Amino acid sequence: MSDANVKQLREELDSINLELLSLLSKRASIVQEIADIKTKQGVTKFDPEREKEMLDRLVEHNEGPFENDAVRHLFKQIFKASLQLQKDDSKKHLLVSRKKQAEDTVVTLGSTQVGNGTPTIVAGPCSVESEEQVRAVAKALKNNGVTLMRGGAFKPRTSPYDFQGLGVEGLEILRRVADEYELQVISEIVSPSDIELATKYVDVIQIGARNMQNFELLKAAGNVNTPVLLKRGLSATMEEFLHAAEYIVSRGNKNVILCERGIRTYEKWTRNTLDISAVPLLKNESHLPVVVDVTHSAGRRDILVPLAKAALAAGADAVMVEVHPNPAVALSDAQQQIDIPTFDQFMTDLHASKLFPSLVESK
Ligand code: PEP
Ligand code: MN
């Protein structure tokens, strides 16, 4: 066979490739049309019965030279690519995605805006234990110009024998003290039936790491207007985290703040591993504000300042830290909460780093 012949055959192959591509593209757009109709009807897009039917028909018409298995394999790849296309398409349409909304969501909490480009601080005890305890912390927050106070009233504890929180009484304490010191309150809710009640007491409903995929809780939080701070699950991927946020936003509550709080790894020197890459990933992928909880990430006090600096340098909109007047006797997380002088120093160190504005001056 002459070189000229090979050249001609290759040209033929090139043009067949282009024809195949154009047929595959045409096929893909029909698949998408079907998917759109199915989405409107609320039925699932992947239909294994239909896939089997198509493969059987292809094999029936196969006259070679490909073996039947080769034909099945080739077309399965085509089907898979089409399905992937639909997945990408639905991701593009996530409400929490930047592709859906380019501008940052800013959550306004009293005089503080979370997500407006100026970082802020959320601080307070792990658990609400008494009015005196919360008041002591509130005073320290006020002195440092911090307006967002956290405190757990419903505590999701690993052991049922551990302190479970003061419940509604804890919410009442938080509200009373917060009003006295003009603070905004963030507190965790663990049950869908308590969401309505919580809206009477708190400014932000926290959904904890252990409940990130409690879908009924997410839906209940999506049905109210109170902003939600959603913590990343102990082993949740970015995709799972954003889908959890989507549960809330898709119900109409657009005021969602994402919180990276460390993930479980094999490392034992920290309670969790702060996944710092989560911050720029979430900021890139989503328009929602991102908070980094340095306390639960580290589970120890000595590295909170560098972790907070890292979070701010990575683009976090806020840093969360647990503060207790006397951590040694705290009813939860005694080993990781910082006392008030340490909190004052924490704030001083962050201001000095230039990564954080001086809240006191702007008071
Ligand atoms: C908390 O912030 O009080 C808490 C329990 O944290 P997490 O859900 O991240 O463990
Ligand atoms: Mn805690």
UniProtKB/TrEMBL annotation:
Q: Name one Pfam family in it.
A: CM_2
Task: Tell me where on the tree of life, at the top rank, the source sits.
Answer: Bacteria
Q: Its Enzyme Commission number?
A: 2.5.1.54
Boundaries of each Chorismate mutase domain copy? 1-90
Give GO terms: molecular function aspect only: 3-deoxy-7-phosphoheptulonate synthase activity; aldehyde-lyase activity; chorismate mutase activity
Which keywords label this protein?
Answer: Transferase
Extract the SMART domains matched here.
Answer: CM_2
Q: Which GO terms describe its biological process?
A: aromatic amino acid family biosynthetic process; chorismate metabolic process
| PANTHER family, sorted | PHOSPHO-2-DEHYDRO-3-DEOXYHEPTONATE ALDOLASE, PROTEIN AROA(G)
NCBIfam families, sorted:
CM_A (TIGR01801), DAHP_synth_Bsub (TIGR01361), PRK08673.1 (NF006421), PRK12595.1 (NF009239)
The molecule here is called 3-deoxy-7-phosphoheptulonate synthase
Q: Which organism is it from?
A: Shimazuella alba
Q: What is the gene called?
A: aroF
